[in-house]
Specification:
This protein is an alpha/beta fold. The chain is 19% helix and 28% strand. It is globular and about 50 Å long.
Length: 258
């Protein structure tokens, strides 16, 4: 992990990441299910915190999603939260979610186009870039997907979600940021041919594999895929170790844990 001074990051499960800086908290891909997709369902303690407005939900200003697949996004749980007293003022954004009659869920954050495939928004202490990226797997090419870059106080973190790293996405991102402090990439992303091209264009200080299920649930062997790819790449700033679910990666002093 990059030694952040201002960004504090909490990992839930799958691609769920809560980032806090200054007086602002943002949750990415963090209201989801996924047990049927070879990943993890949202932990009961996180659902309890969401419904009671405790833990990091007491310091939450926006919920953002890379795309609307169930292991990243759950409409019912999200609707429950946004319609609650604790979520009614929280900004929400998901790129082109599946149409639904559940009118509790709607985008209340409106990123504006600032360059080819790059959109910009601000939430509190954060400046946010949404970068158009292809979803991994030919069967998912029709899924609209955006990777998310958060910047606060000069520090940056990029959540790739299920995004494929292509040269055009790298050039589009590099037009707005000279480098990225920390990138979270899923196991299959390491094996994508565009990986090295992307990181030749965008300097990255630290890489961490995420979206790997706990050992007992890893039915698709994503950890083995990540391990094999990482050894082949042999990058000094890459960690493929499983992240500990429900834990701070960088913890703010005096924080009340979930």
């Amino acid at each position: 992990m990059y030694p952040f001074k201002h960004l504090h990051i909490y990992y839930t499960i799958n691609c769920g990441m809560y980032v806090y800086s200054g007086h602002t908290g943002i949750l990415t891909d963090g209201i989801s299910t996924g047990g049927k997709a070879g990943m993890s369902d949202m932990p009961p303690q996180v659902i309890s915190s969401m419904r009671s407005g405790t833990g990091f939900f007491s310091h939450l200003n926006a919920v953002l999603f890379t795309h609307a697949h169930e292991d990243h996004y759950d409409r019912k749980l999200l609707g429950d939260f946004l319609s609650s007293p604790y979520g009614k003022n929280v900004k929400c954004y998901c790129p082109r979610p599946t149409p639904s009659r559940d009118h509790r869920v709607r985008n209340t954050l409106s990123p504006r186009l600032i360059g080819e495939g790059v959109y910009y928004a601000e939430v509190g202490d954060f400046r946010i870039l949404f970068i158009d990226t292809l979803h991994q797997g030919k069967q998912y090419r029709s899924v609209y997907h955006q990777s998310i870059l958060l910047e606060s106080r000069g520090e940056t973190v990029l959540f790739l979600g299920d995004g494929v790293l292509k040269e055009n996405a790298a050039k589009n991102l590099r037009a707005f940021v000279p480098s990225v402090d920390q990138v979270f990439i899923n196991a299959l992303g390491l094996s994508d041919p565009g990986f090295r091209t992307f990181f030749r264009i965008v300097p990255v200080r630290a890489l961490q594999v995420y979206h790997v299920a706990p050992e007992e649930k890893d039915i698709y062997n994503y950890y083995a895929v990540a391990k094999s790819a990482a050894r082949r790449l042999d990058l000094p700033n890459l960690s493929y170790n499983r992240l500990q679910p429900m834990s701070w990666l960088t913890e703010p002093a005096g924080w009340t844990k979930n």
